[in-house]
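Shipment paperwork, digital attachment
Item: protein structure file
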Amino acid sequence: MSGGLLVAGTTSDAGKSVVTAGICRWLVRQGVKVAPFKGQNMSLNSFVTREGAEIGRAQAMQAQAARVEPSALMNPVLLKPGGDRSSQVVLLGRPVGELSARGYHGGRQQALFGTVVECLEELRATHDVVVCEGAGSPAEINLRRNDIVNMGVARAAGFPVLVVGDIDRGGVFAQFFGTTALLAPEDQALVAGYLVNKFRGDVTLLEPGLDMLYGLTGRRTFGVLPYAHGLGIDEEDGMGVPPARAEPGGRGDASPRGAAREPAAAPPVGEDVLRVAVCAVPLMSNFTDVDALAAEPGVVVRFADRPEELADADLVVVPGTRGTVRALAWLRERGLAGALARRAAEGRPVLGVCGGFQVLGERIEDDVESRAGSVEALGLLPVRVRFAPEKTLARPVGEALGERVEGYEIHHGVAEVLGGEPFLDGCRVGAVWGTHWHGSLESDGFRRAFLREVAAAAGRRFVPAPDTSFGALREEQLDRLGDLVEEHVDTEALWKLIESGPPGGLPFVPPGAP
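Attachment content:
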C-alpha cells in the first residue's frame, strides 16, 4: 500500500508534532513501514542526520518514533529564524541563504514546492505510509496561495487531513468549525475530521459538543487525547513558555523565566539535588541539550534571565543560539555576563554549548551571521572564533572524562583553542567548559561523569543515578504516545482513513475561503 495522512492543527503548538509521532509509533507497532514528513519547518531546534543534513528535531524525533533513520527527505525546507525578521533557509539539509519573511512568502516559498512534493513522493515509494505534519494552521488565508506544508501538500498527495485542537486553551469547537469554514471547497473535501488534544476531565461531558460539531460540519471526531504529563518530547521550539527570540512576522523577544524542563519523578540518589540554570539567550537553539540533565533523578533544570537567578545554581548552562553576537550583548545588558565572570573566578561550574561556547571565548570575528566584525567576548575561555560562510554539520564521536561521547555540530563559528584542557572539540579552564557538540549529555556514561565533576565543584552531595538511560527514557516516552493513540483514538477508523483516503460526500461548510 501507499497510504498517508496530514496532521494539521487549529493553531501553532496544538500538538501536531506529538500526535504525528504517536501515530507513527502506533503504526510501526502494527508492522507498518512508516515515515514522518514535514514539508517546511520553522525551528531553532535542529538535528544532523548521519549523511550530514540539518533537519528539524521534531522530525528526527518522529523518525525515532517510526523506527527509521532520519533523512533530509523528511524535512526538505527548514527555516531558522534570525535577526531583522529574517530566516536562514535550509534546503535538503544545507543552508542556501537568508530571506526576509516578505521575500520568502513573496515567491521563494512557492518555488520550493516542487522539491517538497518530490521528497514526499520518494518517501511514499519506499514506505507503506507517510504521516505528514502541517504547520501553524491550514486556515491562514493570507498564506494559502503559496502554501507548501498544509493543504497544498494534502491536495498534491490526495491525503486526508486530521485537524488537531488543543482543548486546554479553550475554544476548541470554534477552532474546529472556523478552521474548516475558512478553507476553499477543494481543501474542505480533504478534511476528514478532528482530534481533541490535552483534555482534562470526564469525556462524557464533552460528547454532546462533539455530536453538535458533527451536525455543523458533517465531520466526526476521531478521538480525545487526555492531558499527559511528563512527555519530554522534542518539539519545534516550544517550552511551555516561549524562549527569548524574535521571528519573522514578529513575535519579538519573550522571557522564559521560570519555565522548567520537567524533572524526573525519582528522588535523588545522593543527599542533595543539583540545580541547573540555563541562560535564556535570544534566538536560543537546541535547548533540548539540557533534557538529558532534566532526566536525571535529583537534577532540577530551570531557565533564567536575571543574574540573581544564577546565584544559587550549581551549574549554569549557556546554550546554543542563532545570534551569537546578539546573545553576547544580551548577557551584558542583563548583568548575566558579570554573574558568569564571578562564577568562573569562584570556581563554580559553567558549561557553554555551541553559541554559548563562543560567547565564553576571548574574541568573535563575525562577518557572516551578525556582520558585526570583531567583538570582544567574555574572556572565560582561551578561544577565538571566526565565523565562516560555510556551516559545519557533523556527527562527531570522541571521548571526554574517560567516557565515550557522541554528538552533533551545527555552527558557522570556527573555534581556535589557544589553551586550557581539551574538552571534546573545545576546552576546559577550571570549572568552565565549552564545546560545539550538541547532544553530548545524551551519552549516559559521560553525563554521569560530568555531573560528578559539577557536584564536586559545587560542593554538593549529589550522586548521579547509576542506571539512567536517556535513550531508554526516550523510547518509553514514544511508547506512551503510541499508547495514547491506541487507547483514545478510533484506530480502526484512522486506519481506514490512511488506507482509503478522504471519505466521499463531505459537506461544504460556508463561507469557505474569501
